[in-house]
Specification:
322 residues; alpha/beta; Rossmann fold; 6-phosphogluconate dehydrogenase C-terminal fold; six-stranded parallel beta sheet; three-stranded mixed beta sheet; 47% helix; binds NADP nicotinamide-adenine-dinucleotide phosphate
Length: 322
């Protein structure tokens, strides 16, 4: 392989284990990048994993816990000779990071991202990617409310979906290689158009997060219920809102600013449904409420049947969490 050029084929390493990329550069060292590093190491999917983060504190923690093979100080340095570059920073930071790395990308390399919004990332990053470098946006549908370099774990992507959003003209071989990496990290992989992705995620993730943030804010505002009562009796549904509402403020600010149209569309629909339920409660229309809740219960069942959540009571927490 000529120096500075990315190798475009995976190499075999040991029995049954295949290195999919020889050098992976992780830009950002938080929950998602950290989990990717640990998941890649689990089955030896990367020859070397190089990482960097914006702050010296995060880079120091990553060094201390050995999160990646090599921590470097800048994104420009991290991507040199990498055949895969993963942008794992908040959506609003993708453009600046891609501008920084663009002149240093190896010909033949693939740049991907893990951002929760796709159209805005494609518009921000796509124009920065030089000819001869593949750009394949992605989004693992897996996460927790924790963030930072200590929050990652190797199993995060197991049996979770990862959506790849190849842009028109993307080399199918480059997409297949990225798919192999995500499958190796435990994910199921689908491909999707960017606008459809943003609408689907507005329904399944972005609007629910906004509702959780609102509900926790309302509880905080309501002076007739004391703070200690809210905390003490939170097992009755509220606790799950608080977990979601504890998610990283920067990440979620950027999600809403960058998936504005789809989120507003789904919020509009949500408001209409809420008014209909409000009317049913006011008029004592029990049949309407019962029908509605029967339908939503069936949706919950199908999520469990699809293996995307546990059927254990109280989401598997057991009585200890009460
Ligand atoms: P995280 O744990 O908060 O880590 C974010 C990383 O980005 C940190 O290393 C941080 O560096 C760096 N960063 C923050 N602002 C930056 C800036 N302006 N310029 C350069 N670097 C910056 O976040 P995460 O949960 O891994 O999320 C990363 C990406 O994955 C986001 O785009 C998010 O939308 C997406 N995602 C998240 C989830 C989830 O549930 N968390 C799920 C799927 C996808 P410092 O630590 O030095 O500040």
């Amino acid at each position: 392989m000529p120096p500075g050029r990315a190798c475009d084929r995976p190499v075999q390493r040991g029995r049954g284990v295949s290195v999919v990329y020889n050098r992976v550069a992780l830009i950002g060292l938080g929950l998602i990048a950290g989990s990717m590093s640990l998941a890649m190491r689990r089955t030896g999917l990367a020859g070397e994993i190089v990482g960097t983060a914006r702050s010296a504190d995060t880079r120091d923690v990553a060094r201390e816990i050995g999160l990646v093979d090599r921590v470097v100080d800048t994104a420009a340095e991290a991507v040199v000779g990498a055949d895969l570059v993963v942008l794992a920073v908040p959506v609003g930071a993708m453009e600046a990071v891609s501008k920084e790395i663009a002149p240093h990308l190896a010909p033949g390399a693939t740049v991907t991202d893990v951002g929760s919004v796709k159209r805005a990332v494609i518009d921000a990053v796509g124009p920065q990617i030089p000819d001869g470098v593949h750009f394949i946006p992605g989004h693992p549908l897996a996460g927790t409310e924790h963030s930072g370099p200590r929050s990652g774990f190797a199993e995060l992507f197991d049996n979770r979906w990862c959506l790849l959003v190849p842009t028109p003209g993307t080399d199918p071989a480059a997409t297949a290689r990225l798919r192999a990496l995500w499958e190796g990290m435990g994910s199921n992989v689908d491909e999707m158009d960017a606008d459809h992705h943003d609408l689907v995620l507005a329904v399944t993730s972005h609007t629910p997060h906004l509702i959780a943030y609102t509900m926790v804010g309302v509880a905080d505002d309501l002076r007739r219920v004391t703070d200690s009562e809210v905390i003490k009796y939170s097992a009755a549904g509220f606790r799950d809102f608080t977990r979601i509402a504890a998610s990283d403020p920067t990440m979620w600010r950027d999600v809403f600013l960058n998936n504005k149209d789809a989120t507003l569309e789904i919020l509009g629909r949500f408001t209409e449904e809420l008014f209909a339920l409000q009317r049913a409660i006011r008029t004592g229309d029990g049949d309407a409420l019962h029908d509605y809740f029967t339908h939503t219960r069936a949706i919950r069942r199908s999520i469990i049947e699809a293996g995307q959540d546990t059927d254990e009571p109280d989401f598997g927490r057991g009585s200890k969490a009460e």
